Amino acid sequence: MIEIIGTNAGLVWNALNAANSQTVKALKKATKLKDKEIYAALGWLAREGKLNLEASEDDVVVTLL
User: Is the overall model pTM greater than 0.85, yes or no?
Assistant: First the structure.
């Protein structure tokens, strides 16, 4: 399970690296990950200090640090 989360974190990081800042909804579309997969990957990257998360009106904007 940990290996899968790490792989998914890589997918999220690559998507953010290409566009720098995206909403969670846009990341889900770009990576084709399901809700629990995207949030686990975001948690992984956030724990490593690689993300900035900001709440918007109806979504969360994610930016690489």
Answer: yes
Sorted by sequence, the CB contacts under 8 Å of residue 54 that are 6+ apart come out as 60, 61, 63
Q: Looking at residue 11, which CATH number applies to its domain? A: 1.10.10.10
What are the pLDDT digits (tens) for 50-59?
999 999 889 9
Tell me whether strands 21-23 and 51-55 are parallel, antiparallel or unpaired. unpaired
* Contact residues for 2 (Cβ-Cβ < 8 A; gap 6+): none
Predicted pLDDT of residue 33: 98
Q: For residue 43, what are the domain limits?
A: 2-64
DSSP string of the chain, one letter each residue: -HHHHHHHHHHHHHHHHHHSEEEHHHHHHHHT--HHHHHHHHHHHHHTT-EEEEE-SSSEEEEE-
